[in-house]
Every structure is written in C-alpha cells, then in structure tokens.
Amino acid sequence: MRAIWKGAIAFGLVNVPVKVYSATEDHDISLHQVHNADGGRIRYQRRCEVCSEVVDYSDIEKAYEDDGRTVILTKEELKAIPAENSHEIEVVQFVPSDQLDPIMFEKSYYLEPDSKSPKAYMLLRRALEDTERVAVVQFALRDKTRLGALRIRDDVLMLQALLWADEVREAAFPALDTSIRISAQEREMSAALVESMASDFEPEQFTDDYQAQLRQLIEAKLEKGDALDTEETFGAEAEGGNGEVIDLMEALKRSLDKKRGGGAAKQESSEDESDEEEPAQPAKRGSGSRSASGRATSSRSRTSTAKKADGDSDAETTKSGTSGTRSRSAASKSGAAAKPSTASKTSTASKTSTASKTGTASKTGTASKSGAAAKSTTKTASTAKTARKGA
User: Fold this and answer.
1) Is 276 helix (H, G, I), strand (E, B) or coil?
2) Using the 8-state DSSP alphabet, how is residue 175 labeled?
3) Which of 179, 105, 197, 122 is nearest to 156 (CA)?
4) C-alpha pair distances (Å), 364 with each of 51, 245, 348, 369
5) Based on C-alpha coordinates, what's the Rg of the chain?
6) In percent, how much of the chain has pLDDT > 70?
7) How do residues 30-47 score in pLDDT, each as one tens digit?
8) Which of 102, 128, 170, 183 has its CA nearest to residue 9?
9) Residue 342, by phi and psi: left (phi above 0), alpha (psi -120 to 50) or beta?
C-alpha cells in the first residue's frame, strides 16, 4: 500500500505521527468505451467552449457560478485556505460507539505509526480499548475538511470519515404516515421467518456475482469471439418476478415452507432409514411335534397358547400315514431331524414343546396324542382289510 497522507493525531498535548492509507479498494473490472462500428476508443477531451481549443490540465482552474456570475479560484488561492494546510487529526471528544449512526460512515483509512518510537500510538490505542469508546476527530484531506471516527480494527488505529449532519437526507415518505394494522399472526410468522434465516455474519461467505459473471463473459468472448452464445455461457435466463401482488400471509407461509423444506426433507430421510423393516426371524420348531406327523409345527409367536399348539398337532396328525410303521419311521426321522437350533434343543420325541420358550406347552403334548391317533388309524386299517377278505 502507498500512503496518501501524512500528519499527526493531536491527543491533548500528545502528538501521534501517522501515515494514512486507504483501507478499502474497488474490485470492479475496469471497462472503457469504444465506437461500436469500428471499435475505436472513445476519448474525452478538455475543450474550451469559448475558443474550441483543447486545454491542458495545467491551464485549468476551478470556478463557482452564482446568478450568472462566475468566480474563478486559482490553485494558489485555494491553497491559502488555513484548513487545507493543516496536517493534524484533532481529537475533539470520546463517545460510545453505538451513538454513531452507520449512515454517516464514508471512507475508511488505516493509520500507521510514523516515528521510530510508536509508544504514543500504542498509548492512544490502549486508551480506546480500556474506555471502550470511539474518538471523534476533525481533519482536512483532499480539499475538504472532514469529520471522522477513530477506532481500533485488528490492533490498528482506523480513521473512518463521517458525513456531516447536513449531508444526510431526511426520510420523509407520506406512505409511512398512514395507519396500518398488522395482526398478531403476521408478526408471529415474520418472527419465525427471521429465526429460520438467523445466523452469524461472515463476510467471506458472500461474493460479487456480477463481477464473477462479467469475468466469465469476457473469457467466453475472448475464446469464441462474435460466435458467443450467452445462453450457452450462462444457461437459461432466470424467470423474474411478474410484479403480482399476493397475500402477505401467503407470502410468509411460502417463505417459511421454502426455508424449512430442506431441513424437513433431511429429517424425513433419516427417519425413513432408521425405520426400515428388520428382516423377519425364522420360526423355531419344536423337537417333539414331528415324531408322529413328520412335519414340525412352526411357532410364529412366542405367546402362542398350548391349546393352539395341540390343535395344530391334531391337524397335522390327520395328515399322517395309515400304518404304525410309517408313524414310527416318521418318529425316527423327527428325532434325526432335531437340531440344536430348535426351541428346546432336545432330540427325544417324548419332550414335545412347540412353544417351550413361552412356557405354555406341555412336555407330554402332541407326541402322545399323535401316538394314540396312529394306533387308532392302524386298527381301522386292519378292520377294513378283514372285511375285504370276508367279502
């Protein structure tokens, strides 16, 4: 950075020599004007309207016109103004920072110590820190006497030029004088919208979209020349508002729905993932139920009653074979088929427990019933055989 001014801060009888640097800069892309027919550069000339001659800058003076009279002020006359020759930043008072209206803030400058011993600079900075106040100062810079605020930013004294009170316009709008009723619901919804958009201000998060897109346009034009297609470069043009006046409550609702939509969608997605159905566990089989029927009675619920288990066993028994041999063969197969993964982990047919883990099935359950049914079936088969022989 290059210093634009040198002077001293007058802090009572203490002088603090400083150099002044511009604290801000313009990042806009510089463009110039050309003739659209041939691309020729447009130049502005300082031409006198009396003699039509082009006037050199050194021959130009300033003037003031009032009621048809023109007063020409030479450079020497302007330099004779006492304030113009002052290189002093005079501290006039210390005020709380919240008493400075931001609308008065103008240009900002950094102040660098301009002496081999910056002790006075550090003392003034420490005084502002300890008192938590801002120094109101007066100074002259670039042909103008200015009002300013001296405060601290990143351990550096910063001079912020302020507008004079008569340079701030009064806001007088008749529309604001009319009586407007705002309902409690509208205030509540507007407050909710504010809360949904509340955050800490971080300037780095924001960018100048126009300058970025202007740079994109320049690069595309350099690459493609007159064959540039702006729609291809920037995409389809965004639809602007049609100026339609909608209900205020409806606008607030839509705004809230739009802000809450992203968060609600994420929450629903996480809930859907957590609520996915767990795979069903395979039903456990009782070891003794297959001794007479050859098929295991599946226990689908740990709360099944013994009555239901008996009914299922009887139903399976009616499907069993017609001979005792088949019944015994089925019993032996049942014993062989019983695995440690069954409900009771027992291979004997006498311990029948379709729902042994619920404690509702009897160990003398279905096997005995199945055996009786098998004997009855064998007797019936023998009787039928004898009858056929007699016939």
Assistant:
1) coil
2) G
3) 122
4) 131, 83, 12, 9
5) 48
6) 64
7) 999 999 999 999 998 999
8) 128
9) beta
